[in-house]
Design a protein that fits this description.
This protein is α/β, with parallel strands linked by helices and about 350 residues long. The chain contains 13 helices and 15 strands. The protein is elongated. The model is unreliable at about 5-15 (pLDDT under 50).
Length: about 350
């Protein structure tokens, strides 16, 4: 089985990238349970890092440790080169102003207008009224809500409330924006508009974003890199297109199950591990390997050697990522091996899933 084309074959880094955040061996226990278990992770300046995992995997605990709301039991956290794990509560206050936060349920103050909600962090920091209202106006323009400055949250849609939350998170000009399941309460169309806004802010401001989510679609649409957390540990990490093309762990494959092509259920149900008229193969490709006429070449080299069962091509970070399922007749005992050899020689990852017992 060949590995897919690596990220380094697409684009090699030309210089070291500054770390905005570095976690080294971070551990946090609640009673006998390790919410974080030796987490090491870096977030680079100007990137969007997606941290994905199931409920209870440790995502929220990691955020709370990053902004000092939880104390770690072991390990170190650095933000812009400053070790924050030993800071006092007073010493943490300036740090928290450098970290913006947007939430799943918006957390707006209902008795304050939109502009007052956006300006609130600056009011707490002691900024003069005229200056904070000027900043609020700039940010409302950035998120497309200039006409809602005097409105109250109750009159806003969910997407508008989240835009206010984003503007408020940017008020103090943070170096890091933490997004904690910020689109989970929104419908798909509104989610897309919020993700577009976040990516636009990332590009315009060079803002570093840590995106906490359980939705792989969100990671695919906005993140540069993805880290997968499971039972308090980072189990997989890499460029989004590379991880989507070739997931290395069961948890990542499970999380990707809803958006990667899957073998149709009626075929999967009748697969046998040892006998059948056809061998069912999964074929994964990424980057240059997914751009050629692979199956046309296979048909020319080995006529009547397969039929296409299911599959498709996605484009992630400008890279084609493909997954197909093919059926290879078993009447020639050597044919499956020849097909696999042909495909793996062209940088495909091939796996025999089983044998279809219902195809003569």
């Amino acid at each position: 089985m060949n590995s897919l084309v690596s990220a380094s074959q697409i684009e090699a880094p030309t210089e070291a990238v500054e770390e905005v955040v570095r976690l080294t061996g971070v551990t946090r226990h609640f009673a006998q349970t390790a919410a974080l278990d030796g987490v090491s992770l870096s977030i680079h300046r100007g990137e969007v890092l997606g941290l994905i995992g199931r409920s209870g995997a440790g995502k929220s605990t990691l955020i709370r440790c990053l902004n000092g709301l939880e104390r770690v039991d072991a390990g170190e956290i650095h933000v812009q080169g400053t070790r924050i794990t030993d800071l006092t509560e007073r010493e943490l206050q300036p740090l928290r102003r450098r970290i913006g936060m947007i939430f799943q349920h918006f957390n707006l103050l209902s008795a304050k207008t939109v502009e007052e909600n956006v300006a609130l962090p600056l009011k707490i920091a002691g900024v003069a009224r005229a200056e904070r209202l000027k900043r609020a106006a700039e940010l409302l323009d950035l998120v497309g809500l200039s006409d809602k400055a005097k409105a109250f949250p109750a009159s806003l849609s969910g997407g508008q409330k989240q835009r206010v939350g984003i503007a408020r998170a940017l008020a103090a000009r943070p170096v890091l924006l933490l997004s904690d399941e910020a689109t989970s309460a929104l419908d798909p169309e509104t989610t897309r508009s919020i993700l577009t806004l976040l990516k636009d802010i990332n590009r315009k401001l060079g803002l570093t974003i840590l995106l906490i989510t359980h939705e792989m679609e969100v990671v695919r649409d906005i993140a540069d890199r993805v880290a997968v957390i499971d039972a308090g540990r980072i189990v997989e990490e890499g460029q989004v297109w590379s991880v989507f093309a070739d997931p290395q762990t069961d948890i990542t494959r499970s999380l990707l199950g809803g958006i990667r092509p899957q073998l149709p259920a009626q075929i999967a149900a009748r697969l046998s591990p040892t006998a059948g008229a056809e061998a069912i193969l999964s074929v994964d490709l990424a980057g240059p390997a997914a751009q050629g006429a692979l199956f046309a070449d296979l048909s020319a080299a080995l006529p009547h050697s397969f039929r296409l069962v299911h599959g498709g091509i996605d484009h992630i970070q400008g890279q084609p990522v493909a997954r197909f399922f093919i059926a290879v007749p078993t009447r020639d005992a050597t044919l499956s091996g020849k097909v696999q050899q042909f495909l793996t020689a062209r940088s495909a990852r091939v796996e025999v899933l089983g044998y279809d017992t219902d195809h003569a």
